[in-house]
Amino acid sequence: MTIIEKISDLKKLRSTLYEGIGFVPTMGALHAGHLSLIQQSVRENDKTFVSIFVNPTQFLENEDINSYPRQIKTDLDICSRAGVDFVFLPSIKEMYSDSEPMVKVPKKKGYVLEGEKRPGHFDGVLTIVLKLLCLVRPNRAYFGKKDAQQLYFIENMVKNFHLLSEIVPCEIVRQQDGLALSSRNVYLDDEGKIEALKLSKSLKRASELILRGDFNSKTIKQEMMDILSPLRVDYVEIVDREFNLLQEVELKNTIILVAAYVQKARLIDNMWV
Ligand code: AMP
C-alpha cells in the first residue's frame, strides 16, 4: 500500500493508471461502516484509493475540528489489511490555498435538514469532494447512505458538473443493537451508547407503522418523537429521494431521517423505505 501526501505525487501516479479505479473518501477514524465501502471498492475495482482528510471547510465556526477523532496509524492498518492500494493523506495546506472558489449547494434544497442546522456544511463537503474527484478521477466513488443528504448533493453535483465518476451508494452499517456506526460514537460513554439507540429504535418504530399500512408522515413523526424523548432532537423528517417533504410515505421513494444530540455527540440516522 502506497501512502501519498502530495498532490504532485498523486497526479504523477494517476497518470500511470487506466480503468478500474475505485475511491472511498473519508475523514478517518475508520470503523466497520467505512470498511464496508472500502471492501466493496476493492471487490469491484482493480485499484482502490482511500483518502483520509479532516476537511476544515465543512466544519462550522462553532464546531471544533481539533476534537474530531484521529487515529491515523490504526486507519492505515485497516486500509492495508483490506487490500487498499493507495491512501491519499494530504495536509490542509496541500488541499486549500487562501483564495479559491467554493462550490455552493443548490439554494432550494441545500438549506433544509442538515443544511438548515449546519449552514455552509454542504458547501464545504461539495468543494472537497469535487477536488478529490478531479484528482483521483475514479471510475467509481463510494458513499454511505448514512449521510443521505450528502449523497444526494454529491450525485446532483456529479450529474450537473458532468463529472465522469459513477457514484455508488452503500448501505448503512450498524452494530448488532441497531446503532449506526459513526466516528462520532467515540464521544459516547456506556450510558450514551444506550441513549443513542433511541435513534435506530425510532426508525424501527416507523417501519412497523409503515408495515401496518400507516403512511401518514405526521403520525409516524409523532411516534418517533415519543421514542426519542427526552433527547434534544434537531429534526425528524420524511422526504422523498429528492428531499422534498412528504405528507404520506411513498414506498420505494422515501427516506426517514433523524438527527439528535446524545451527550456531546450530534448523531444522524435514516432509513430508506
Ligand atoms: P466520514 O469519514 O464520516 O466522512 O465518512 C466517509 C464515508 O463513510 C461517507 O460516505 C459516509 O457516508 C460513510 N459512512 C459513515 N458511516 C457509515 C455507516 N455506518 N455505514 C455506511 N457508510 C458509512
Describe this protein's structure.
39% of the residues lie in helices and 20% in strands. The chain has 10 helices and 9 strands. Helix 2 (32-44) links the parallel strand 2 (21-26) and strand 3 (47-52). The chain starts with a strand and ends with a strand. Adenosine monophosphate (AMP) binds next to helix 2 and strand 5.
User: What structural class do the secondary elements suggest?
Assistant: alpha/beta
Q: Report the mean per-residue pLDDT as an integer.
A: 97
Order of H and E elements = EHEHEHEHHHHEHEHHEEE
Strand order of the largest sheet: 1-4-3-2-5-6
**Unreliably modeled segments:** none
Helicity, in percent?
Answer: 25-40%
Q: Termini, distance in Å?
A: 39 Å
Q: Which sheet architecture does the biggest sheet show?
A: 6 strands, parallel
Q: Evaluate the radius of gyration.
A: 19 Å
Report the sheet-strand fraction.
Answer: 15-25%
Bound molecules: adenosine monophosphate
Strand tally is: 9
Principal-axes shape call: globular
Question: What's the number of helices?
Answer: 10
Features:
single chain, 273 residues, alpha/beta, six-stranded parallel β-sheet, 10 helices, 39% helix, globular, binds adenosine monophosphate
Topology:
Blueprint: E1 2-4, H1 7-14, E2 21-26, H2 32-44, E3 47-52, H3 72-82, E4 86-88, H4 92-95, H5 107-110, H6 114-117, H7 121-136, E5 140-144, H8 148-160, E6 166-170, H9 190-211, H10 217-228, E7 232-240, E8 254-262, E9 265-272
Parallel strand pairs: 1-4, 2-3, 2-5, 3-4, 5-6
Antiparallel strand pairs: 7-8, 8-9
Helix pairs in contact: 7-8, 9-10
This protein binds adenosine monophosphate.
